[in-house]
Amino acid sequence: MKKLVVLGAGLAGTMAVNRVRPRLDEDEWEITIVDQDETHIYQPGLLFIPFGMYQAADVKRPRRDFIPSGVRFVLAPIEGVDPAAQRVTLGGGRQLEYDYLIIATGTTPRPEQTAGLLGDAWRDSVHDFYTLEGATALAHRLERWDGGRIVVNVMELPFKCPVAPLEFVFLADWWLQEHGMRDRAEVVYVTPLSGAFTKPVSSRRLGHLLEEKKVGLETDFYTEHVDASAGKIVSYDEREVPFDLLVSIPVNMGADFVGASGLGDELNHIPVDRSTFAAEGHPNLFALGDAAELGTSKAGSVAHFAAEVFTANFLRGLRGLPPHEEFDGHANCFIESGFGKAMLIDFNYTTEPLPGKFPLPGVGPFTLLEETEMNHWGKLMFRWTYWNVLLRGKDLPLPSRMLLAGKETA
User: Fold this and answer.
1) DSSP state at residue 184
2) pLDDT tens digits for 326-336?
3) Cis peptide before 365 (omega within 30 of 0)
4) Which domain range does residue 362 map to?
5) Do 161 and 139 fall into the same domain?
6) Which phi and psi angles does 191 have, rounded to 5°?
7) How confident is the model at residue 297 (pLDDT cuts 50, 70, 90)?
8) Which stretch of DSSP H or E encloses residue 246?
9) Which of 45, 43, 50, 44 is nearest to 247 (CA)?
10) Which long-range contacts (CB under 8 A, 24 or more apart) does 90-95 make?
11) Using CA atoms, how far apart are residues 342 and 383, in angstroms rounded to an integer?
12) Where are the alpha helices (DSSP H) in 10-104?
C-alpha cells in the first residue's frame, strides 16, 4: 500500500487531503495528516478581534471536523524529515514512512527574531494580532485605550496576509472615530517597503486613503530593535519612530523542522517548482500554502488556487503524465477600509492589480481597486465560504488562473 503523509492541518493541508482522498483508491493508499494541536484557526478573522467585531469563538473549529473519512489524523509535534529515507520523525521518536510527502505547516510570527520585541512590554504596550492570543490581548488593551500614538510596524517580508497590517490601520481609524477618540490618537504605518501597498499600481491608486484618514507613513524602515522602555522602534539606518502602543507584524518563518531537515531557505520556506510544487531534488516531496516559497503573496487565496493546480498535476504525475499547467501566482484579497467598506485586488506574477469588476465581467458584484460596501460584505461572507467550501476541498466558481476579462487594461 502506498503512503501519503501530509504535515500540517491548516488550510493548505486540509484542502489537499480533501481533494486527493476521493481520487485515490482506499485499498491502495493510506493517507495520514499530522498537526500538533486540535484547533483550526480562521486566520483572516484575527484582524477583527481587536476591534470587537469577532470573538475568539468565531474563528475556532476542531480540525477533525474538516478531515475526511479515510484519512488518519495524528496529533503530534513534528521533529524532522529525512527525504533520503522517506521518513518523518514526530515527537517522542515516533516515525512515519512515506512514499509521498506534502509539507503544509505554514509560516508563523517569530517575535524573538527582533531584539527588544519580546520583554516586559509584550502584550502591554507592544502587541501583535497574527495569533489568537495576540489578537485577544490587543482587544483587551484597546478596551482601556484613552489616546496616544499607535504605530503599526511590519518587520520584514514575506509575511502572511500582506494586506492585513493596512487593514488594521484603516479599522483602527474607524474604531477611534466611532469611540470619539480620533482627535486624541495618532496612527502611523511603518513598513520596509517604499510604499504602503506591496504592488506599485495599488500604491498609486490607493495610497491617497492614508492621507485622507490622516495616517502617517514611514517607508523603507528596516527595524533593527525595539526599545520598549523608551517607547520607540529603531531602524538599521538609526531612524526612530516613537510609540505609545506598538502593533507589530513580526518576522514570519516556516517550521523549524524544515530548516533542520535542510529543505528551506533562511526563513524555513521551501522553494518549489511552480508546476508540481515539488521541492528541488525531491520529486516525491511537495510544499503547499505558506510553507512554500512561490514568489507571491502568502495568502489564503494563493493556497486555494495553488491547491487546485497541485491536485491536478499530482494526480497526473501518479499516472506518469506531465504537468497540465503551471501556477501563475494568482491571488486576490479583500482589504477592509473601515466604515463598512472594503477594496478588492486581483493579481498574479505578471499582472498587477487592475480596476474593473469581479468575478463576472461588467457585472461584479465586486469592484476592483475601489471602496464599496459590497466588497465589505464579500469579506465578511468569506468566513462561511472558508469553513464550508475551501477547507472541504470543494471548488469555487473561480478559475485558478487569473483572468483579464472584466478588468480595465488600458
Assistant:
1) G
2) 999 999 999 99
3) yes
4) 331-390
5) yes
6) -140, 150
7) confident
8) strand 245-249
9) 50
10) 90/34, 91/36
11) 15
12) 11-20
Residue 336's Cβ-side half-sphere holds a number of Cα atoms within 13 Å equal to: 27
Cell matching residue 159: 509575511
Nearest-10 crossing angle of helices 300-318, 11-20: 30
Grid cell at residue 244: 505609545
- 23/18 Cα distance (integer angstroms): 9
Indicate whether 261 pLDDT > 90.
Answer: yes
Identity at 191, one-letter amino acid code = T
397 lies in some domain: no
Asked if residue 259 and residue 229 are part of one domain, the reply reads no
Q: What's the confidence (pLDDT) of residue 239? A: 97
Q: Is residue 396's pLDDT more than 90?
A: no
Could you give the CA distance from residue 403 to residue 361 in angstroms, rounded to a whole number? 10
Structural domains counted in the chain: 3
Q: Which amino acid is at 26?
A: E
CA of residue 117 relative to chain centroid, distance: 21
Any idea which residue has 487569473 for its cell?
A: 402
Do 44 and 94 reside in the same domain of the chain? yes
**What are the Cα distances from residue 394, in Å, to 19, 151, 239, 282, 371?**
8, 40, 49, 28, 29
Residue 139 DSSP class = H
